[in-house]
Amino acid sequence: MPLLHAEHISKTYPNGTQALKGIDIEVEQGEFLVVIGLSGSGKSTLLRCINQLHTVSSGRIVFDDAEITALKGRRLRQARSRIGMIFQQFNLIPRKTVLTNVLSGALARTPVIKSLLGMYSAEDKQKALAYLDIVGLAQKAYVRADNLSGGQQQRVAIARALMQDPKILLADEPVASLDPSTSHSVMKYLQKINQELGVTVICNLHFLSLVRTYATRVIALKEGQLVYQGAPSDIDEQWFKTIYGEDAVEVSIN
Ligand SMILES: Nc1ncnc2c1ncn2[C@@H]1O[C@H](COP(=O)(O)OP(=O)(O)OP(=O)(O)O)[C@@H](O)[C@H]1O
């Protein structure tokens, strides 16, 4: 049984744009799956449908044995709490400390009044510090988030997502705002949590050189359809042109 199974999912936005057109994917526990494709091919929409930020127009998604596309209310919140997400723009609260930002990842199981007052349990604080250590930022716990570099902020976002005890982490172009060397650093931490904590990762990326270094499997979208799935090493020049178009040229990120 795969950890995640998207069956023939389609998404049409209210303005009529058909962003996904009948996608089938299975993701096994422990994979580091990278999604590639031109801008507008549907990568973000796919991730947002998986964690139900967007509802699918048709098809169904089964995650961890539950059909999340059919869940509502508390059961949907429970299922979603096992799906972490990080974004291109990090989405931290800039004026709060790094530790407070990480603790906010525990919101799903913290009573609203306690979270408003910043009253997190000692256990959650310990856990947040341990996750900051995993992403190499324990010494920055009491620094304001907006004093950190972009790469460090993305690592805080990873620690925040880990507070949910996710089974799967969705990363929507996590390095698109970062320079090349910082991009590798963030990707290495994602690889670390995949390999050492066993968190399955689905990550949208633009640069094939990163894909080749970090992905255990790749899928490619083109105009909302799945056009490739396989090993990163099997993406030869012909596949590259199928995915990105005849005129595309590969650019490396070192
Ligand atoms: N909220 C929305 N309302 C209407 N159309 C949308 C919305 N979000 C995305 N789209 C459209 O859906 C299509 C797929 O967009 P999506 O953002 O999923 O692609 P993407 O591959 O992630 O692109 P990028 O790499 O630029 O982020 C595009 O045509 C886009 O313009």
UniProtKB/TrEMBL annotation:
It is found in: Cell inner membrane. One of its GO terms (molecular function) is ATP binding. Its main location: membrane. SMART domains: AAA. Residues 4-248 form the ABC transporter domain. It is a peripheral membrane protein. PROSITE patterns: ABC_TRANSPORTER_1 (PS00211), ABC_TRANSPORTER_2 (PS50893). InterPro entries: AAA+_ATPase, ABC_transporter-like_ATP-bd, ABC_transporter-like_CS, ABC_transpr_PhnC, MetN_ABC_transporter-like, P-loop_NTPase. It holds the Pfam family ABC_tran. Keywords: ATP-binding, Cell membrane, Membrane, Nucleotide-binding, Translocase, Transport. The keyword Translocase applies. It comes from the Bacteria. NCBIfam families: ABC_phnC. This is Phosphonate ABC transporter ATP-binding protein. The gene is phnC.
